[in-house]
Prior knowledge:
CATH topology of the largest domain: Triger factor/SurA peptide-binding fold
Radius of gyration: 34 Å
Strand content: 15-25%
Number of strands: 19
Structural class: alpha+beta
Shape: flat
Number of domains: 4
Distance between the termini: 34 Å
Mean pLDDT: 84
Number of helices: 20
Low-confidence stretches: 1-25
Helix content: 40-55%
Amino acid sequence: MLVVLVCALPFVFLGTSSLSTAFTGSFGSINGEDVTEADLNMASNSAVSRFKSIYGEDFEFDMLDEETKGQLIKQELVTQKVLLSQARLLGFINDTSIEEAKKSIVQTPQFQIEGVFNQDVYEAQVNSNGYTKEGYVDLITDMYASEVYRNSLVTSNFVIQNEVYEIAGLLEQTSDIKFTKISFDGLKNEIVNTDEELTGYYNNNQNQFYSEEQRNFSYILLDPVDYESKVQVPDGYIQTAYEAYLLNNEASSQIRISHIMIEKNNHDSRDSAYAIISEVENLISEGGDFNKLAMEYSDDVVTKENGGDLEYFEQDIFPIEFEDAITDLGLNETSKIIELEDTFHILKITEINLQEPLPEDQIKDDLTNELIQTESFALMQDDFSELEDMIYNNTSISEIAANLSKTNKSSEYYTINNFDFFIDDLQIKDYLFSLDSGVGEIHAIEIANTILVMSIDEIIEPTLIAYENIKDEVEALLTESKAIDKIELMDIELNSIEDESDKNAFIDAYSFISSDEFIDVKRYSSLLPREVLTNIFNESPGKVISVNANNGDKYMINIIDFKKPTEEEIIEIIEQYEAFADESISTRISNIVNEDVFEKAKVKLQNVIL
């Protein structure tokens, strides 16, 4: 379900941020929607996630320049807030979206123990991410409504048959070509460098032969595991918590309910809405089928097709009026009419599932471990607060380690290209090699549940590497430079030869030059590099072009002709292009939506650097 995925997003996106803020107060508004620090972090990490989905998990967002990153993050932020404002304006944030948000919270694995929703786990998780229970429900409701609104804009599309044929005809056309190829690697193998040329290249290009800057650092690691031995479990706490578990297990997992809902706003008045729900009540009392009545009468578009099924009842998720109404009901019994602020409901008990509680020892062990984890994290945070004061007072890292009874360790020397610290987190590398980071300065980084405190010990500046130590590298660079120049000269010379026999004689004189002719080459053929094929299919018949392949090879291509597929050939493959066309137009509409909301947004941001 969409809402379950939305519910997990804050725990995915409330991580490290790629933007910086001037302070932690107000950050302004977009279309009247307040912008919080959580919004900024989610927009930042959403941008990172989007790029990784396109370019792969190895893509490093921080390799982009600051201006580009800022614009991408701003676009994510504006899009999210404009969608939310439109969803709010159109009434997408209502009882149904709130109810869906609450249901999704119950189904979220992060909030469960042994597959069962746990109120304490839920509260601890959302609190650790900076939310109250109610605030988190509001967040998920907003995200759900925004996604429903976005989907309503992009899911309605169609493609006419002529468009599908046009796409198929374009992508399935073939080309007849003649070409000459100069092999870059083959040419390099023919090049011989003298000692004079090598030393001359080294002396004239010394800026290429400096060692990389090296840096090392001292560090302290605050880890909750190190504080577990200091946690004391209060007398009677586990027994009290176990008894609460038994009560919660009995109350939260035994009853499944369905409902029929009448929305007051869908009718002329409260009385007319009440008349409808009263009619439904009479039909039920006369033996009417509850499922069919829900499908016919209910205004809850999410559940009506499932006979009004709301799944299992959970306290603090459903309104208190629901709990009161079902308290004395048995299996397959229905409630009286329930009136809420905007709706009327009739509930039915569809399932009573008295789950057996888990073994007492297991629950008590879980409760003990949970308490230890929570309290050890709190103790670590206490040390971190003390540590922040010491950093503010310019205390050295060795003194900090002594005050906190921690071990001050030293890292190896790293360059920006061989950084392999045992904690794999980009924040560490970014700080270590930042131009703004100085020797002796203290910096703290939160990584998952741990805190790394680091201070740069030494910066070893780059020095010129002796020629004898890098002779092979010098030779490789000189050879490559010669090969690049030689290929360009040979390209010019080949294109200047008009007589075909003279051209063939020139080609035959070199082992690294070849010529060939291909018939019916497709746009996505494996016969030629992709970048070469792209250039071919962007030209017209009769053109002669020169193309550099990514591996350095040079192609001189005579484009003889293009051929479109026959109607019979298109018919054989039309189904895959129909799916492709649907996906393509959906993407185009989604892009148009994003561009439109971005251009129309009323952005009033402050105190944030983008």
